[in-house]
Each structure stands twice: as structure tokens, then as C-alpha cells.
Design brief:
alpha/beta, kinase, 9 helices, five-stranded parallel beta sheet, Rossmann fold, 7 strands, transferase
């Protein structure tokens, strides 16, 4: 792309985003519920940053940072990374320029303790979570989704060989780059993650339900139907 066109596109994007209201939301649900499918278009339409803690931790592991070395053995076992590690990552990420209009938190908070810490962090900034999008789906459906999932690492676009295959097997529809399997997308690790979700994360949904912020969505529906419900919950981004 010519430099002049890139600059024009950047200016148009800035003008587009300057008109948006600030929105801070959480996408919550068990692994395979569709958070990775819904988050990218919501991020673009509402000018938000997508803070997927799982992806950030995996990147730290790949880069062999102090955080990555600390988290590696825990992640490989399919267990939850300690609160102090995750909370630190999230707090720093919120300060990025692309988060000026708000964010989508994906994979955090996983526990009520994390939710309370998040509320405290936001309170010091004079803001709060606006909506919590709860993508609910049965475990049997999730198993098929997760074991068939492939992702484009750079963009976060998610595919499924059973229900949403790429146009070319193993290739991203937009860039043509290779897709990858997540290291924790195995049957054994999925069972461990689902157990952790039901025991620790369901209370988070209840926590935000009591605050009147939870929007419950049946995630077995078509992805476009789900997107319409999310847009209604967050408010039309073009308004």
C-alpha cells in the first residue's frame, strides 16, 4: 500500500473512532463458546482493543520472558495462571493507545477474586465495566468446536473444520497465511479447562449478574444472530 494511502486510511480511521463512545466490556464463556469469533468485528466496529489474556500469555511463553517462563508449566497443564501474573498483564495492557476508547476482555476475569481486582483497578481510573457478554453453550457442543478449531495467530480470526472452515484448508481467508492449532486444544486439556470454568468462572457470571451488567446469549445460534444481540447490548456503533 502506498504511504499516502496508508496515511489517508489512518486519518479516516481516527475520525471514525473519535466519534465513538467509550465502551469497556468482558466476553465470558467456556473455551470454544465463540469469544474469538465475535471479538474481532466488535473490536473494529467499536474501536476497542481486544485483550485476550490467553494469547498474551502464549506470546510471553514464546518470547521466553520472565512472565512466560513462570506461566509455561501452568499453561501446559491446562491450569489457571496465578492472579498476580494475569492482573499485571491486564492492567498494563489497558494503558495502550489502542485502548483509548475501551476494550474487550477475553479470558479475564476467570474468578470472582479477579473480577473484584479488576473493579478496583478500573475504579482508580474513574471508569467501570459497561457490559458482560456471557456466551453460554453446552459442554458437548464445545468439545466439537474446540477439537475442530484453527486460528490465525496475527489477527485472532478463528475457524472450525466442522462448522466454519477456511476457504482453503489450513490457510487464513484474508491473508492466506498458515493457520495454527492452540497447544491447549486437546481433549484432555479441554476437560481440565471446562472443569475449571464451571467451578471458578460461573461465579464471575453471577457476580456481574448481581450488578445488572450481564447479557446472557445462547451461543449455539448462528454467529450473525449472536453478533446482532451483542450490538444491541453495546449500542449501535454507528450511533
Amino acid at each position: 500500500m502506498p504511504a499516502g494511502q496508508a496515511m489517508l486510511d489512518a486519518l479516516q480511521r481516527k475520525e471514525f473512532c473519535d466519534k465513538k463512545k467509550e465502551t469497556r466490556t468482558i466476553f465470558i464463556g467456556p473455551p470454544g463458546a465463540g469469544k474469538g469469533t465475535q471479538a474481532p468485528p466488535v473490536k473494529d466496529n467499536y474501536c476497542l482493543c481486544h485483550l485476550a489474556t490467553g494469547d498474551m500469555l502464549r506470546a510471553a511463553v514464546a518470547a521466553k520472558t520472565d512472565l512466560g517462563l513462570k506461566a509455561k508449566s501452568i499453561m501446559e497443564a491446562g491450569e489457571l495462571v496465578p492472579d498476580d501474573v494475569v492482573v499485571g498483564i491486564v492492567s498494563e495492557a489497558m494503558e495502550a493507545p489502542e485502548c483509548k476508547k475501551g476494550f474487550i476482555l477475553d479470558g479475564f476475569p476467570r474468578t470472582t477474586a479477579q473480577a473484584e481486582k479488576l473493579d478496583n483497578i478500573l475504579s482508580t481510573k474513574g471508569v467501570a465495566i459497561d457490559k458482560v457478554i456471557n456466551l453460554a453453550v453446552d459442554d458437548k457442543v464445545l468439545i466439537r468446536r474446540v477439537l475442530g478449531r484453527w486460528v490465525h495467530a496475527a489477527s485472532g480470526r478463528s475457524y472450525n473444520i466442522f462448522s466454519n472452515p477456511p476457504k482453503v484448508a489450513g490457510k487464513d481467508d484474508i491473508t492466506g497465511e498458515p493457520l495454527m492449532r492452540r497447544s491447549d486444544d486437546t481433549a484432555d486439556k479441554l476437560r481440565s479447562r471446562l472443569k475449571a470454568f464451571h467451578q471458578q468462572t460461573q461465579p464471575v457470571i453471577d457476580y456481574y449478574e448481581r450488578a445488572g451488567k450481564t447479557v446472557n446469549i445462547d451461543a449455539k445460534q448462528d454467529k450473525n444472530v449472536i453478533m446482532g444481540i451483542i450490538r444491541k447490548a453495546l449500542g449501535n456503533p454507528d450511533a
